[in-house]
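Ticket #4471: structure output looks truncated?

Reporter: J.K.
Steps to reproduce: submitted the chain below (434 residues) through the standard prediction queue, then opened the result file.
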Amino acid sequence: MPDFAISADPAVQAQLERLVTLSPGSDILGLDRITRLLARLGDPHLRLPPVFHVAGTNGKGSTCAYLRAALEAAGHRVHVYASPHLVRFNERIRLAGTLIDDAALAELLREVLDVAEGIGASFFEITTAAAFVAFARTPADACVIEVGLGGRLDATNVLPAPAICGIAALGMDHEAFLGTSLVGIAGEKAGIAKPGVPIITQHYPPEIAAKVDEVATAVGAPLNRRDREWSVTDGVYLDSWGPVSLPEPMLSGQHQRDNLALAVAMLRHQWVIDVPDAALVAAATTATWPARMQRLRSGGPLTGRVDPRHGVWLDGAHNESAAIEVARIWPRISRGERSALVLGMLANKDAGAVLRHLAEVVDHVVAVPVPGHAHHAPADLARVARGLGLTADVATDPAAALDLLARSEPEAVLIAGSLYLAGTVLAANDEVPV
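Returned output as attached by the reporter:
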């Protein structure tokens, strides 16, 4: 599915339009195009500060947020490359702690696009190359880099020697590119392993763990597995260097505690940059990551449409494993009372799997489109929801959905199903990520 970006800045928009025209219009995997593109740019990926490279199906973005928070709490300047953006394309490239500004972004994209002719590089490959150019030129102490899709053939995997690698939660997603075998997907994610570079992994079912271990061992990457080389019990992280008591993270849910633990393990098992335990503790309560069970500001242009007693939460949950985590958290947030789900999903996602889990914790579904993207028809989503025993309606957009829900008196509202939808919601409520 092609990526999508617009900008209010005319110079940035002009380059984004060039990017859409030049790219093949869909996600493609492989390292040949990005390698050739980076060579034309002077191989900036070989001149980066120490890299923390994170893969996974769910949780890699939050893990990156914890890594950044801890590194910054330790006084370090941090570059971050993440995707997708929610509202502004600039969110993908953070330079030494600050999102890239429009003038610099426009010039950066122009420079990369000017040399990309004939390579057939994808939207993500162009963006990755631009980030690496910016990171190589801007002084910083560390880079936190999130894998885009998969791992082995993802454009970020041209990085030859990260300081450390990490793999977050694994599940089914992007089956058109990674296949329908969870073992195979695990192998693709583990493909970020590099010779001599420690790799940190979560706890996985035996068959999945065995595949990750196999891939890492084959390339000579030292394995550091949860519940073997490191562990977390009741908020106390433990490895061979001793314990660290971690506070409850500001981001909600058991999965966020797991993501925090992975970030802590990555920082404790690398030896290129100093991060004291106090910074690890600080990361728990300072890290933020938009659209991950985020309570939206009451009284905003969007949320002001409902009674402030309702509360409106936003989560980008778009696959089954993410829906399982949201379903675990939501009853506590909604206090087990009547609640509603505003749902919009991309056409390449398994809407039935997501709804099966969320149907257990909500009473009413309002299905909406995802603007600018191929998506499940709202009528089809509503039909699936009714088949699961829920009341279901359709609306033209989240604002219309909240207008409808304002008349039905739900105690809490969850908007979910797509990070692209989340971006439109944040923009509509004037909560643009910074």
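Triage note (M.O.): checked the attachment and the full token line is present. The two ends are 27 Å apart (CA to CA).
Status: closed, working as intended.
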